[in-house]
Structure formats: structure tokens, C-alpha cells
Amino acid sequence: MIKSFLKIALRNLAKNKTFSIINITGLAIGTLCCIYIVTYVAVKSLRAE
Q1: Where are the bilayer-spanning segments (predicted)?
Q2: The total number of structural domains that make up the chain
Q3: How far is CA 8 from the centre of its chain?
């Protein structure tokens, strides 16, 4: 079942290349921003002590 889902997902990614690149880039930027914010807050809270 999962193999079927992956096959369909890869087929759709290949068919809609521009949309896929924009979508994956946005997800990567959002994830990196979240990690950066969490790291920044953790460092600030450690320095405050």
C-alpha cells in the first residue's frame, strides 16, 4: 500500500515539476526558519541564566 502511494507521489512530482520545486523549496525554508528560531530562543534562554 505504501509502495503504491510512493509510486503515485513520485509520478505526480515528475508531472508537475514547477509546482513541486516551489512546494519543496517553501517547505525547506519554513523548516529552516523554525529550526533557526528554536535555536535562537534556546541560546538566549541559556545566556540569560
Answers
A1: 21-43
A2: 1
A3: 20
Q: Calculate the alpha carbon distances from 44 to 30, 34, 41, 49 in Å.
A: 21, 15, 5, 9
Q: Is the pLDDT of residue 49 over 70?
A: no
For 16, phi and psi rounded to 5 degrees? -110, 70
Q: What is the pLDDT of residues 10-47, one digit of tens each?
A: 999 999 999 999 999 999 999 999 999 999 999 999 88
16: left (phi over 0), alpha (psi -120 to 50) or beta: beta
Domain that holds residue 18: 2-48
* pTM of structure: 0.71
